[in-house]
Amino acid sequence: MEKKLLEKLAAGNRVYGTCITSTAPLWIKAVRSASLDFVFLDTEHVPLERMEVAALCQLYGAAGIAPVVRIPSPDPIGACQMLDAGAEGILAPYIESVEQVKEMVGAIKYRPLKGERLKQLLNNSEPVEPELKDYLANYNRGNICILNIESVPAFEKLDDLLDVEGVDAVFIGPHDLSLSLGIPGQYDHPKFEEVVQLIVHKCRSKNKAVGIHFSDHSGRPVKWITEGVNIIIYSSDIMLFTQKLSDDFNLIRQNAGDKPDEASEAFVV
């Protein structure tokens, strides 16, 4: 299965995707009907086991839809496991240091090299043999290294994080970022918008792709596309199902003369 998502991002194209939480195979048909480029498989907040993620990666990859997996923590071993499962992109959560970024680059761009030899390569302390360099480039061709930027410390160190060779993209985590800013869930707050705007502009100025994940309404992605976001990740299977189910049943109740269900809470991923 040829990996094409990184090529699209490198060309400056926009790519579109959604979060998938269900292992049911028929969701693939729904995703294909929306002409999406990738699916976001979140193993940080969603209870997906390694075998389930592998099955989803193989199914979506075979359908020409790139699987992007968020691992539970910035763990290079976990990243390699997901790449072995068929992931095309790896999203490392809550990145805040250059050392974390280097470890992720090592796992995503230079596997299966490990140990001291990998550290030497990442720190440019030893020359790399041409044969080894070519082997690693071919072995990891198309792998995408994505950083989750979702805190004030990460924002403050963003230049250094982006300057690590091998970083391809950034996902902004709006909920955690708003918490770190002291304005939880206030996505229209001027402070939140200012920080997101600066992150987006900095990423684009360094030729890094950038995305932000919203689920409440489609107007938010449209707004940030105008600022330079080119990875458009919107909602999730369970969120879209919940919203549609709630809206339709409230409409049915209203037309039947029953009181709409105002107490129901939206399911958020």
From the alpha carbons, calculate the radius of gyration and give it in angstroms: 20 Å
| Spatial shape | globular
Largest sheet: 8 strands, parallel, barrel
Q: Classify the oligomer.
A: single chain
Strand order of the largest sheet: 1-2-3-4-5-6-7-8
Strands, total number: 8
- Give the fraction of residues assigned to helices: 40-55%
User: Structural class of the secondary structure composition?
Assistant: alpha/beta
- Total of helices: 13
Q: Which regions have little confidence, pLDDT < 50, spanning 5+ residues?
A: none
SSE arrangement, N to C: HEHEHEHEHHHEHHEHHEHEH
Q: Strand content of the residues, in percent?
A: 15-25%
- pLDDT averaged over residues: 94
